[in-house]
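Record filed below.
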Amino acid sequence: MKRNFMLLAAAFMLLYIFSWQYSYCSPSDFEIKYQVDEFYPPYEYAKDGDIYGFDIELGKLIFNGSPYSVEYSSDIWANVYKRIKAKETDLCGLISITEARKKDILFSNTVVETHRAVYGKKTLKVTSLDDMKNYIIGVQKSDYAETVLVDHLKINNYFTFNNYEDCIEALNSGVIDIIFGNQDVIHYFLVKHQLTENIVSHLSNLYPANMAYGISMDRPELVTYINSRLLELKKSGAYERIYEKHFHRHSNYYQEIERKRNLTVFMIAFIFIMVFIGVSQYIIHKLKRAVKRATRDLQKEHEWLSVTLSSIGDAVIATDEKGDVSFMNPTAQEMTGFKEDEALGKPISKLLNIINNVNGEEVQLPVQTVIIEKKTVELANNSSLITKDGKKIPISDSAAPIYSKSDEFIGVVMVFRDITEKVETEKALYHQAYHDYLTNLPNRRSFVDKLDKSRYACELEGNSISVFFIDLDNFKSVNDSLGHGAGDTLLYEVGLRLSHSVGDIGFISRMGGDEFAILIENAANTEELRIIAENILKQFTRPFIIEGNLLHITPSIGISFCEGRLATSKDVLKLADKAMYKSKEKGKNNYTILVS
């Protein structure tokens, strides 16, 4: 009885302490103003009124299920940092940790490690950091790279830009000579704008810096909360999945775990080997003289092979001075499909077939060029190896002459590697730049490019071109009543129905928001366009089922029909937009055709 009374008293005491603690917490203590750079992909970027990127996805997981209410916003980075210093916001996107910044804000534990790089046009000569002083430099304002320029490199003469995309535009147009900054962000924009052939990294993996969440000095409790959630997400694997999605590689955390695991395996193997050596010591001692003799004989017999074996990490093929194969390592055998005993003594031109990916034409082997010119040769970009069984493998390749100790040319060594993963990564980034993230349809940029090309071709051939501009009626009410998640699902379903209704006769794009566009080429007359418009309206007679709700959504369609000597692409779009507004004025859920 006495024990039960004591337990009850303790429970009431804990309840009292809990209620007292939270009675002094105002609602604002659980409100967080979270602001990020509006243009710093793949870390963070704003698009169509929302914010995306590694930083945002990870941040939403951190605060998911927490008592905190988070208000997300974005601005140029210089303004973001000013506000976090002035305590006008509580949390900012990932920021490099420096001693100077520690005086102004608090930091979470490290989230990612980044590096700086020097980018310039391919013809530029930059071989060291000292060379940078000879060129006009561009950098993102208030970025960690600016701190490195001033504090470490003692360079004070440079141009600042609001974001790295502006830096790249300035470099491409000749305003600046080089860009110094975050290599992940710069590479993202180069792939997006298809500039990787013209603008390259001359110096990379410089000045590693740890990036973490920046926290206002007024909110120290957020440091403890974010650090604990980061640890949970890393252990669960959620952090790694988001990291791979945005950076297409493993994180330092993953590599450290793998390193520890490999170290453990190595230690176990080492102990086993030491035991084995101890047991076998007597036998090894007996065989030592024989092994030395065999090694000495082998070195004499295969002296010419020592240069080749030094490069055996990639696929390696060696030839004699005539171009006949004299050696293939296992990687080369696996990639080409030829065994070494099949290849030895045969001309390398009979084994290797390398083509240009753009035109499909056969490319001269670097080995043949080295035999003639006696100098190192690299394979041109966009080249692929055709294997024995016809498989096509993208490769990078180089070939170098082999000289004997007496400086006599005795052959060629060719080293190449499979770059399929790199090619696929660049394709994925290109797809992201030209397609809508939500519907996977081509985006506005892709549509305008297609319209420009189609308009020019149709004008030469004297054919017509038409644009359907589609706006969903009362779409805002869906977002207001059911939330943006339901609105996103609805837009995805609309894209599917439009694709089904048009098929292969049109090029469909999501232009942004609730607006879609369809490009139709070579329509004979407006009657063909009416049939397509009626078919689209028919697709919207069936309600959409979104999160268990039946939604009756209708489209207002504006159609421009242009033939003969066509107007500009801008005029074609403008005419379709004008027609769409006329459809709105007529009561929506209909179409209007305007002829140019």
Summary: The mean pLDDT is 85. Residues 252-301 form the longest helix (50 residues). DSSP finds 21 helices and 26 strands in the chain.
